Amino acid sequence: MKKTVDDAPGAGAAADTLKAEAPDGPDTPLLQVDDLHVEFKTRDGVARAVNGVSYSVDAGETLAVLGESGSGKSVTAQAIMGILDTPPGRIAGGRVLYRGEDLLTMGEEQRRSIRGRKISMIFQDALSALNPVFSVGWQLGEVFRVHQGMSKKDAKAKAVELMERVRIPAARERVNDYPHQFSGGMRQRIMIAMALALEPDLIIADEPTTALDVTVQAQIMDLLAELQREYRMGLILITHDLGVVADVADKIAVMYAGRIVETAPVHELYKNPAHPYTKGLLQSIPRLDQKGQELYAIKGLPPSLLRIPSGCAFNPRCPRAQEVCTTELPVLQPVTDADGADLPGRRSACHFWKETVRG
Amino acid sequence: MGRYVVRRLGQMVVVLLGATMILFACLFVIPGDPVGSLAGSDKARDPAVIAQLHQRYGLDDPLAVQYGNYIKRLVQGDMGEDFTQRRPVSEILAPKLVNTAKLAVVAIVFDMVIGMLVGVVAALRRYSLLDTVVTLATTIVVGFPTFVIGMLLLNTFAVQLKWVPVIGDPGDPKQIILPALTLALVDAALVARLTRGTMLEILRADYVKTAVAKGVPRRQVLLKHVLRNSVIPVITYIGISFGTLLGGALITEVIFNWDGVGMAMNTAVQQQNNPIIIGVATWGVLIFVLLNLLVDLLYAVLDPRIRLG
User: Fold this and answer.
1) Is pLDDT at A8 greater than 70 in this prediction?
2) Is B305 in contact with A180 (Cβ distance < 8 A)?
3) By the CB < 8 Å criterion, does A114 face chain B?
4) Which CATH number fits domain A31-249: 3.30.70.2760, 2.30.280.20, 3.40.50.300, 1.20.1260.10?
5) Which residues have CB under 8 Å from B276's CB, separation 6+?
């Protein structure tokens, strides 16, 4: 809350109403992840998959979480949904606030009623994410049966509606078909329909197009973006594909070894990255005007989560690394312009962000 | 589907021919004269009687002719006449088949109920003390031969605890518990391990995560999404294990004095009563193949990805 009560009386009343609306006031983000830590017990020790991730999404907003596999982007999403494999996984700290309420401390039944109804998820590979032995109509209808106690018949009718909504041809005839009888793109549409069924506030899409052909990828992203606009949902788009992000995201969080290393509004990130890792990612996109030249690649490999390098986790691969990078963990700090004014939404966890952004 | 069933039934004929042929050849090379004991004791054996008996059963014909005659009669539903009672084999075996079927059905029910229940519980409480006990116990049980299990059960529950009579009224339904348990226990242990393994694998499946993410209550996730998928390999296994069950029936029936085909087989082998041996084997193959066909059909019903053809 920006206003204090000892302002003018009128302002005080306004502050009171704000307070009354809390935790669901206009200042409260739809979803806020706060200093989340997740670790996995393995045979070789504890793998620290998520090490203090914070981000937030508002209604109608799209946050893209970008990172290589093992960066913790999917684990964060699973922690939000409450579908981590525990054990071996464990949430070691932090909060996940949905409209100001901590999902991690709420009762299982309350949390279950939020899952699939208020927050839903789209998975990467629809073939394995759909149950092979039930018809798609049954699986779509299950959302209505579970959350609204709808009858089988009504739920199936709803399923047909949903399939039409995501433009699956001949929905009425295909409602009793099984997942393996659909093409990859159609299956992903069914996943989207399932996530959308109860018009949730927030959808988490974990690499929704990775398993699809390039031509189908664009259709699925367009469909997702269109439905998001229509229902004014928040969207967390998890991806490693910078191409997918550019058109649909509002802001980006780049993750590396379980931490956010840079956040920025989407176009600023592309124009002028403030972290050497982001810069490396952008440079490694193949470009037509560089045809014939060798493709840029970030040297080295992502670190093992069992042995994350001290200091900045990226230091062994970083072209800018100095002594300080191996000893001191850089915090996520505001990125400013040349005059020292904060650039809205821009943060970088690099000791040398100034040099990176300006040089 | 119809064509598939017809083709499978065709295959069954081939399997039946192959199995009986091998059995015929085996019995042919076994030393000793099958009708020897029929003709009286060793000393008083009259060569004329033996010759007459040999002619009556066609035992002097070459193997191929004997086999051909057997198949010719079998097609007409005639399984021949046995050596000791001189009654039709099918007439002798019919009531015994019913008895063995009773035992087998109860055993399979035990097998599935015990095996799946234990497996599911162990999977849901993975790495708990209970799970460790189950893993250990199933390993031990699998290592025990049927006759040891049978005698242990008989000694414990009939002799020591006197819960059931050692030899009781055959009409008493309690009588079936111990032999059925003996027959089922090894398979139940295997089913338990199979169920546990499948279940653990399926609990990690993406579609289970999807169901949880949809807000489906845990109970329903387990009962619908997990169990339905876990049951598929178990059903297949139980179909295949029916062969072992028939083998186990021989020993179990002898231990518990259960008047089924296993016991008939045991007696027939001792008396070299070849028509009965072949009769039991023929029935065994027939039932085994039919059951496997049934399992395959069931498999297609349970898993829509399987199309028979």
Assistant:
1) no
2) yes
3) yes
4) 3.40.50.300
5) B82, B89, B92, B93, B264, B265, B267, B268
Total-model pTM:
0.78
Strands A62-66 and A234-239, bridge-based pairing: parallel
Residue pair B60/B54 in contact by the 8 Å Cβ criterion:
yes
The mean pLDDT value for B39-54 works out to 70
Exposed/middle/buried for A273, CB within 10 Å: 0-12, 13-18, 19+?
buried
Residues of B in contact with A146 (CB under 8 A): 214-217, 220
Cβ of A287: how many Cβ atoms within 10 Å? 10
pLDDT for position A259:
94
Q: Which amino acid is at A48?
A: R
- Is B228–A133 a contact, with Cβ atoms under 8 angstroms apart? yes
Domain boundaries, chain B: 2-75, 93-302
| Residue A142, CB-side half-sphere exposure with 13 Å CA sphere | 24
- B93-302 adopts what CATH topology? MetI-like fold (1.10.3720)
ipTM: 0.84
Q: Where are the alpha helices (DSSP H) in A197-304?
A: 214-231, 242-248, 266-271, 276-283
Q: Residue B157 carries which DSSP code? A: I
